[in-house]
């Protein structure tokens, strides 16, 4: 039975990519549950207007930190800023991320490096820097601390035409499951959230051209799946969002790798390409 088992009231949650899509969803859910927030992304005006909205709706205290997380010293700078403000993080949502679409042959190498810098390096550095805070919060306030990393159904198999994205999300999934094992005795809730396509700005940013395939998930559906998992006494280290996506991910683990690669390649082939 689901109960409000995850209770971050009185603690602070940091959300990366809080200016849009799923990040805004996590901000509302965490604020509603009584957490103070640290909102991080590049678009400052959006973060500030979200902070005002959350203060009006839930009385939330938000700290807005505009930052490009792909910059070399972004994470140390962010952590220094938190220390100066004497903020301890009880929940970390590593949500900022983006994809590129197209062949590796035609890709922009700088943009691909940026993708790895955000989806992999910033997530790893921030987790490493804040894990002591999270574990300490878990020991002081049982059921109040969580590490939520945004992976994807793209994590379960190679994704032609989104090669770097699929690889970054495979990393996030593997890394998060390993951290969840290592911290299992601490009380920290650690999970990789794996949605299929969600209706956000993601596809515009990725410039898929063909748009979203099928009916995308809503941000609300991803929030329901995330928080019902957080509310379980034994937190699953992987949350697949949507029954169809869960089945497809299961297929990817039992079917021959070559067959899965061919099927995903066909599905993802840009229009007009053979
Ligand atoms: N939408 C989907 O179909 C889908 C499916 C599975 C998983 N996901 C994952 O879910 C997460 C959130 O995606 P979304 O769908 O909400 O996409 P979105 O609406 O495009 O939001 C992406 C967020 O990342 C932030 N961001 C991008 N580059 C950044 C940078 N260099 N530094 C700091 N922040 C940066 C953006 O803020 P600024 O532009 O203001 O910096 C924005 O807040 C991503 O990790 C994505 O891979 C999405």
List keywords for this structure.
9 helices; 48% helix; Rossmann fold; alpha/beta; 274 residues; binds NADP nicotinamide-adenine-dinucleotide phosphate; 7-stranded parallel sheet
Order of helices and strands: EHEHEHEHEHEHHEHH
- Work out the number of β strands: 7
Largest sheet: 7 strands, parallel
State the separation between the terminal residues, measured CA to CA: 49 Å
Strand order of the largest sheet: 3-2-1-4-5-6-7
- Shape call: globular
CATH superfamily membership: NAD(P)-binding Rossmann-like Domain
Radius of gyration: 18 Å
| Count, helices | 9
- Beta-strand residue percentage: 5-15%
Could you explain the architecture of this structure?
The protein is of the alpha/beta class and 274 residues long. It has a single domain, classed as Rossmann fold (3-Layer(aba) Sandwich), CATH 3.40.50.720. Helix content is 48%, strand content 13%. The protein contains nine helices and seven strands; from the N terminus they run βαβαβαβαβαβααβαα. It has helices at residues 21-32, 44-58, 74-84, 109-140, 163-182, 202-206, 219-230, 243-254, 257-268, and strands spanning 12-16, 36-41, 62-66, 91-94, 146-150, 189-195, 238-241. Strands 3-2-1-4-5-6-7 form a seven-stranded parallel β-sheet, sandwiched between helices. β4 (91-94), α4 (109-140) and β5 (146-150) form a beta-alpha-beta unit. The longest helix is centred in the middle third of the chain and has 32 residues, at 109-140. The termini are far apart. Bound molecules: NADP nicotinamide-adenine-dinucleotide phosphate (NAP). NADP nicotinamide-adenine-dinucleotide phosphate binds at residues 16-23, 41-43, 68-70, 95-98, 118, 150, 152, 195, 197-198, 200-202, 205. Residues 16-23, 41-43, 68-70, 95-98, 118, 150, 152, 195, 197-198, 200-202, 205 line the site of NADP nicotinamide-adenine-dinucleotide phosphate (NAP).
């Amino acid at each position: 039975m689901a109960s409000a088992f995850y209770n971050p009231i009185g603690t602070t949650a940091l959300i990366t990519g809080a200016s849009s899509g799923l990040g805004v969803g996590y901000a509302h859910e965490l604020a509603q549950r009584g957490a103070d927030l640290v909102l991080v992304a590049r678009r400052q005006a959006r973060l500030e207007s979200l902070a005002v909205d959350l203060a009006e709706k839930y009385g939330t205290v938000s700290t807005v930190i505009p930052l490009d997380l792909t910059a070399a010293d972004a994470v140390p700078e962010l952590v220094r800023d938190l220390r100066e403000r004497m903020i301890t993080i009880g929940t970390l949502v590593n949500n900022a991320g983006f994809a590129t679409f197209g062949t590796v042959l035609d890709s922009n190498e700088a943009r691909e490096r940026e993708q790895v810098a955000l989806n992999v390096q910033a997530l790893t550095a921030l987790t490493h820097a804040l894990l002591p805070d999270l574990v300490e919060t878990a020991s002081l306030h049982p059921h109040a601390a969580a590490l939520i990393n945004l992976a994807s159904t793209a994590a379960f198999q190679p994704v032609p035409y989104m090669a770097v994205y699929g690889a970054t999300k495979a990393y996030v999934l593997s890394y998060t499951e390993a951290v969840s094992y290592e911290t299992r005795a601490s009380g920290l809730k650690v999970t990789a959230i794996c949605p299929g396509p969600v209706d956000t700005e993601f596809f515009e940013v990725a410039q898929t051209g063909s748009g979203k395939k099928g009916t995308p998930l809503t941000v609300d559906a991803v929030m329901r799946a995330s928080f019902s998992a957080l509310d379980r006494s034994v937190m699953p280290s992987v949350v697949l969002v949507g029954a169809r996506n869960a089945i497809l991910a299961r297929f990817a683990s039992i079917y021959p790798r070559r067959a899965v690669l061919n099927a995903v390649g066909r599905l993802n082939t840009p229009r007009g390409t053979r």
